Amino acid sequence: MATPTPLQQLQEQADVPQTKTGKLFTAMPVIMTVIATLLAGLASGEMTKAQYDRAFAAQLQSKAGDQWAFFQAKRLRGELQRNTIDVLTATGSKLPSGSSAEIPKPAPLELVPEVTAALDAARADAPPETINPLLQGLADAPLAEALKAAKDRAAAYDTLTAPLIKAVESVPLARLTFNAARYDAEAKLVADIARLYEIQVRKTNLSAERHHLRSQRFFFGMLAAQAAVIVSTFALAARQRNLLWGFAAGAGVLAVVFAIYVYVYV
Questions:
Q1: DSSP readout, 204-265?
Q2: Residue 220 predicted with pLDDT over 90
Q3: Burial class (CB in 10 A: 0-12, 13-18, 19+), 195
Q4: Which tens digit of pLDDT belongs to each residue from 144-156?
Q5: Residue 20 lies in a domain
Q6: What is the DSSP secondary-structure string of 172-193?
Q7: Distance between CA atoms of 214 and 211, rounded to whole angstroms?
Q8: 115-131 mean pLDDT
Q9: Residue 181 belongs to domain spanning
């Protein structure tokens, strides 16, 4: 007569039927432990992604703040030029007149429609309820390309106005008038760069919130799987094991289905 294996001895001691179903019920604590471990890993991974996105959003917000400070400096210098003209005019000072260079217009930004819609909403100071849906379907690549295009446009405008600045350097009134208009135009270019950074901040924060929500849902699934482990373990020693095993199996299936739903749809 063959010697029973340790698993068979455990099944016989627990009066578990020697069938595939009985073996499955006996192994259920191990299976549920594996599922709970997988869900715990998914929850931890999503939380790590959420923390990374939060840190990245903070870096982007710092860059946006730098651009807004640059914007304020441009606007302030433009106002100083106009104030100087007003003061000289009010005091009766006579400034040499001369030909004034016409301020060139910056080149328009060529963006994909999704980025254009988000940028227009940012320019209009749209509330989160309006701008957030525009960002959910926006990919990272077009937004990064738009930011690069905005920076290139600002650099190209500096190159375009450099010879004009030299042309009016010797004529005080023309220089003040030209620089006032130039600083205003440059401020608008810098403001677009700052707004694009802020769009990235909003988008990254939305991603962080999504990962945080997924982590929370995976954690709930892990709790359900752990409950299945506890119940199935007690079922091995209880008389009403069919009811307990049914509850454990239901909790395990619910945990798996819920995890799949979160992974695919959340």
A1: HHHHHHHHHHHHHHHHHHHHHHHHHHHHHHHHTT-S-HHHHHHHHHHHHHHHHHHHHHHHHH
A2: no
A3: buried
A4: 999 999 999 999 9
A5: no
A6: HHHHHHHHHHHHHHHHHHHHHH
A7: 5
A8: 88
A9: 26-265
Q: How many CA atoms lie within 13 A of 58 on its CB side?
A: 5
Would you give the distance in Å from CA 206 to the centre of its chain?
5
Would you say residue 37 lies in a domain?
yes
185: exposed, middle or buried (Cβ count in 10 Å: 0-12, 13-18, 19+) = middle
Confirm whether 8 is domain-assigned: no
Q: Check residues 13 and 20 and name the one with the higher pLDDT.
A: 20
CA distances from 177 to 12, 103, 119, 157, 237 (A): 98, 10, 30, 18, 91
How far, in Å, CA of 192 to CA of 71, rounded? 10
Q: Which amino acid is at 44?
A: S
Looking at the structure of the chain, the number of domains it has is 1
Q: Which of 11, 53, 40 is nearest to 210 (CA)?
A: 53
What's at 250, amino acid-wise?
Answer: G
- Residue 170 DSSP SS3: coil
End-to-end CA distance of the chain: 56
Does some domain include residue 211? yes
